[in-house]
Amino acid sequence: MFKKIAAVMAVIMGMAIAMPALAQGVNHKIVFHVDENDPKLMNMTLNNVQNVTNYFESIGDTVEIQVVAYGPGLNMYRADTSPVADRIATMSLEIENLTFAACGNTLRKMEAKAGGPVELLAEAELVPSGVVTIVLLQEAGWSYVRP
């Protein structure tokens, strides 16, 4: 049993030492997926964005990030109800290459249900479909994260 634990620890330590050396100078591309109207999930997503950005910048890498919201997750970008509007505004100014993508399909359904326009945060960029955006980014080599 001790040998197995020691072997696992050796692998983990080796990865921790090798990770910075492997990644230096790389441009990472990451898409984060939000499809729930849950402030904890929204904040966790933004925490992940900040942590990933800090890590890659600390080792000299660059990172492009898109946060794609659709379905109930589009509430993350609603100007009237977003629980994370202030964080999004701040992060969009502080983090280069960070995009907030809003699903056009979901927005149309929200507006039909509301009987009129639904205003999104200025930082949100409308895309035709959140799901299609995620698929296309993955096909283009982007890493997918669903917090």
Précis, in short:
By secondary structure, this protein is of the alpha/beta class. Helix content is about 50%, strand content about 20%.
How would you describe this structure to a colleague?
It is a single chain. The protein is 50% helix and 20% strand. 26% of the residues are buried. The two termini are 33 Å apart. The chain is globular, with a radius of gyration of 18 Å. The chain is of the alpha/beta class. Strand 3 (98-103), helix 4 and strand 4 form a beta-alpha-beta unit. It has a single domain (30-145), classed as Hypothetical Protein Ychn, Chain: A (3-Layer(aba) Sandwich), CATH 3.40.1260. It has a five-stranded parallel β-sheet, sandwiched between helices.
